[in-house]
Amino acid sequence: MKQLASKVCIIGGGPGGIITSLFLSKKQVPHILVDKSKFPRDKVCGECMDGRVFHTLKRLDPTIFPEMVDKGLIQETRKYLVNVSNVQFPVNFSKKSTPGMLAKRVDFDSFLFNKAAESSFCEVVEGEIITSSRHEGNEIIFEGKNLEIKSSIGVVASGYN
After folding, report:
1. Are the beta carbons of 7 and 150 closer than 8 angstroms?
2. pLDDT value at 160 more than 80
3. CA 123 → CA 5, 6, 16, 36, distances in Å?
4. Which 3 state secondary structure label does DSSP give 74?
5. Which band of pLDDT confidence, cut at 50, 70 and 90, is reported for residue 161?
6. How many helices (H) and strands (E) in the chain?
7. What is the rounded CA–CA span in Å between residue 50 and residue 102?
């Protein structure tokens, strides 16, 4: 069984886990990021994001959003169509407003996951399912089939949790 240890362990490599990892790296906090899949991996949800995502990415690193736009991974939108009982209501926002974003989850997640993996403060574990956790003193022990991780802080960022 592989044994790892770090100050922080993040379970889940979706947007919540990846953004947590990137902010920890920005603050130079060593951590482990675990995802049950191997990247790139696709999800069918979350392909339309509101302005809060834009502002979070901007706070994290002002170059990330423009880089994603330049690579064609993300599109800005300021037009929405709301459907209610077979009636459509167009909603348009001014060019000065915060943009919404459209992206394929496979592209969005993979781009950010690769950014997280590039950090010397992040150790990535892919293809491992964490099946249990327990406390031993001040530590949390996360266990998978072939893995045990000891950490002081645990962040469970799996979408269904």
Report:
1. no
2. no
3. 10, 9, 17, 15
4. coil
5. low
6. 4, 11
7. 9
